[in-house]
Every structure is written in C-alpha cells, then in structure tokens.
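W.,

You were right to be curious about this one. When I first looked at the sequence I had no strong expectations either way, so I just let the prediction run and decided to look at it fresh. Below is the sequence, 272 residues in total, followed by the output.
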Amino acid sequence: MNESLVSAASSSSHIASAASDSASAALQSPTGAAVNMGFAHFITQTDAVGQGLFVILVIMSVLSWGLIVGKGWTLFRQQARSRAFLNFFWSARSLESVQAHLHSDGVHEPFACLTAHAMQAQAHHARFGASKLEDAGSAQEFLTRTIKKVLDEETMRMESGLSVLATIGATAPFVGLFGTVWGVYHALLAIGATGAGTLDKVAGPVGEALVMTGVGLAVAIPAVMGYNWLARSNRVWGGRLDAFAFELFTFLSTGQTLKTSAANPSTQATTR
C-alpha cells in the first residue's frame, strides 16, 4: 500500500515538472521568436529578388546623402566666398583694383568667375577686335555673349546632381512598393502550400513587405527634401548672379567706374 502511494506521488511529481517545463517553454517561445524576428532576420530570409531590391535602396540612400552633404557644403562655401567678393567689389574704387584682386587671390566662386571672364573678354576684343568668327560683332555684343556663356556654365554647375536626387526621390517609394508586393506574394504562396494562414507561415513574408516599404520611404524623403533645398538655394543665388551680371555689363560697356561716376557731378558743377 505504501509502495503504491509512493509510486503515485512520484508519477504526479513527474507530471507536474513536465507541465512546468512546457509552460516555461511556452512563456519563453514568444521572446525567442521576437528575438529571431528582427530586421536582419527578414533580410537574410528573403530571396535574391528581395535582397537585390534592398541593395538598390541602400545604394540610392548612399548616393542621395552623398549629394546632399557634398553639394550642401559646396554651396555653403561658395556663398561665403561670394559675399566676401561682392563686399570687396562694391567697395572698390575702380575696376582696375578689382582686376588686381582677381589676379592676386584667384577665382573661387561664380561672381568672381563672371567678373574675370567679362574683363578678359573686353580686353581681348579691344586688343584683337573681330579677327575670328568667335569674336564677330561689336565689343558689347562680344561681352554679352561671354557673360551669357559664363552664366549658363555656372547654372549647369550649380544644378549638377540635382536630377539624381529627383530621380531617387521619385523612384525609391516604388522600389520599396515592389518589395512589398513581392513579400505579400510570398505570404500567399506560404498560405497556399500549407492550406492554413498561421502566423509562423506569413510573419516572415509580411515582415519583409513592411521592411521594404519603410526602407523605400526612408530613402525617398531625405532625397526630396534635399532636392527642394538645393533647388531653391540655386534659384536664389542664380537670380543674384543674373542681377550682378547686368551691373557688371553696364560698368564694362559704358567704360565708367565708380570713382569717375562719383567725380562727374563735381566736375560739372565746376564747369558751370
């Protein structure tokens, strides 16, 4: 009798320990699944198409951030140099002092480049005249063509790379959407193969779809914002460069400097 009681107690203890082990395993399994279902899990579990789309999005992100940082730094540096040159130009007493400044310090920004090319064009036409088809026309016409050419070159230089940002901002969401469609397609295949839409069958493909959507948006949003910022900055400084080109053409075509124009009123008053 005692032996039967002991055996029954031991069997009940074995059952209780087994139940506790199964309960602890059930409690630990969601945590383990959560650990395994991370971002890296979805990337490693996807096929070649999904991994290729992810690599394309990464390349787009690197290109967009490289253009934003590189062109932003170049724009900031050129704006600082342009302000310094414009301050010197408008405070100079003659165009000869501006030309000497350009020869000594060099050309490092669009306003100085425009001034240097315009002065060289005026001196070239005054020295050689219309000796070639390139130099045909009057001095003012040749100066106008030179200024227009420099403006076009500077505009193209400022806008270089913006088309890449615009393309990335427009296409990255659709690349991510294609990855989303591909992940949903895999989820439907898993459901069709097993006949049951359980969580373990669809969690991977649906997670892959959501990851691709998020990555596509993360690539597109900075590209669009960077494009708008750079395009507006280039438009503002392009307008200022056009206005400066008109003033520079007036000074060079009339042959008057700030010093002589300021001296004219006193001269006229003396003659009167």
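Here's what jumped out at me. The chain is about 90% helix and 0% strand. And, maybe more interesting for your project: The CA atoms of residues 88 and 261 lie 18 Å apart.

Coffee later to discuss?

I.
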